[in-house]
Amino acid sequence: DTLRYNNLTMGNIVGETIVSDQGNTFDIAETLFEVDLQKFEYGRVLLMCDVLKKTSENRYDIRLTGIESVLTKNVQPLSEITEDELMVEDAINIRDIWYGGGYLNLFVEFAQKEDSKTKHRITLVHDDQSQEEGYAFTLRHNAYGEIPSEEDREYRSAFGYVSFPIAGLIKEDSADITMKWKSHKRLPGGNYSLLETEDITQVCKWERIGYEHSICKR
Predict the structure, then answer these.
(1) CA separation (Å) from 103 to 8, 71, 85, 98, 214?
(2) How far apart (Å, rounded) are the C-alpha atoms in residues 40 and 5?
(3) Quick one: which of 117, 138, 121 has its CA closest to 129?
(4) How many other CB atoms are there within 10 angstroms of residue 58's CB atom?
(5) Cβ-contact 183, 91 below 8 angstroms
(6) DSSP state, residue 87
(7) Which of 11, 115, 154, 215 sits between 20 and 30 A of 177, alpha carbons compared?
């Protein structure tokens, strides 16, 4: 009956419950605010809660303390990407990346003007034309012209979560995943330069061994 406070997890809304990437079902017994689960556009959320009690195998009553929508987008095959889309490759920083619940989950950072109304576009492209072994993905960011320059440095860091379902693309239980993206150049101390960029390539090992495990951490 031990309470677990400040539980943070990602999962999907199923009816009036939330099923976490670890396979647990959460029923909202208490909440600190009014919430309608059906109003979350993507059906995928970052959940903050206190776990009150276990009601059955892998099922729990919770006190909801916070919930945020997670942008969820299908992976785009390279063969379907237009030349105009391929030409746009604005910098984006991946702060964290992990696999869970059948999704490749990213916590990203990008430069944005203060009080900006510009919607940025984030796309994960799968190289479905590659003849090499393994799976190759490129994360692409379109800032729609909202890019820092020597003349304009009045930018802040914006953060967000995005999930891409990839379980259906990967047939093996073990495979290499290559991730590529254009990042702001990392400076000593962990900060990023607004004006310098670098191309990042990381090879990660995919293992279908459980509900959630981290891959591709820098």
Answers:
(1) 17, 12, 23, 8, 12
(2) 24
(3) 138
(4) 12
(5) yes
(6) H
(7) 11
| Coil/strand/helix, residue 38 | helix
Residue 107 in tokens: 């916590």
Q: Strand, coil or helix: what is 39?
A: helix
Could you give the CA distance from residue 205 to residue 152 in angstroms, rounded to a whole number? 40
Rounded CA-CA distance 76/126 in Å is: 6
Q: Read off the tokens for 84.
A: 């105009």
Ordered strands of the 76-77 beta sheet: 76-77, 121-126, 135-142, 174-186, 192-207
Token duo for residue 33:
């605010």
pLDDT of residue 217: 46
Beta bridge partners of 42: none
Query: Pick the residue with more confidence: 205 or 142?
Result: 142
> Quick one: tokens of 187?
């400076």
Question: What distances in angstroms separate CA 112 from CA 9, 158, 174, one per listed residue?
Answer: 27, 6, 38
> For position 210, what pLDDT does the model report?
59
pLDDT, tens digit (0-9, with 9 covering 90-100), for 57-85: 999 999 999 999 999 999 999 999 888 88
Report which residue type is found at 19. Answer: V
Mean pLDDT of 147-170: 91
Q: Tell me the per-residue pLDDT of 26-52, one tens digit each, with 9 for 90 and over.
A: 999 999 999 999 999 999 999 999 999
Q: What is the DSSP letter of 118?
A: P
Nearest C-alpha neighbor of 32 from the set 4, 69, 67, 65: 65
